[in-house]
Design a protein that fits this description.
5 helices, two-stranded antiparallel ribbon, mainly alpha, 124 residues
Length: 124
């Protein structure tokens, strides 16, 4: 078995390319290949989530241009969408949510005493 080139497209990229993109653009195999390859290189659509722009075709991806290959998952019933890693940033801390323009709280310098329910007096 020949080991893949370091710049080869990943197995997940190959799966998305063959089982979703290429398979969804039925008709001429070369036209479908060119469309999917363009999406991959321009980092558009679902291929952008799983492929590295400019990665080298796997042998199955290259064969798809001639119509010589179908989705390798077609033999199984597992055509579920690929798992895409979550790239959400870490949760913010309280200090990070305060902007420099956020006024800080400071207790009043004068003592406040409530004399009645409607009147407030301040004493130094």
């Amino acid at each position: 078995m020949v080991s893949p080139s370091p710049n080869s497209c990943s197995a997940l990229c190959e799966e998305e390319f063959l089982c979703r993109c290429h398979q969804n653009h039925q008709g001429d195999a070369q036209v479908a290949y060119d469309h999917c390859r363009s999406e991959l290189d321009e980092q558009r659509g679902p291929l952008a989530n799983v492929c590295t722009s400019g990665c080298q075709d796997t042998s199955l991806m290259a064969a798809a241009a001639k119509g010589d290959v179908v989705c390798p998952l077609a033999a199984s019933d597992d055509l579920s969408p690929p798992v895409v890693p979550d790239f959400a940033p870490p949760p913010e801390t309280f200090e990070e949510t305060l902007s420099p323009s956020t006024p800080s709280f400071s207790p009043p310098s004068q003592a406040v005493q409530e004399v009645s329910s409607n009147t407030v007096y301040c004493f130094p």
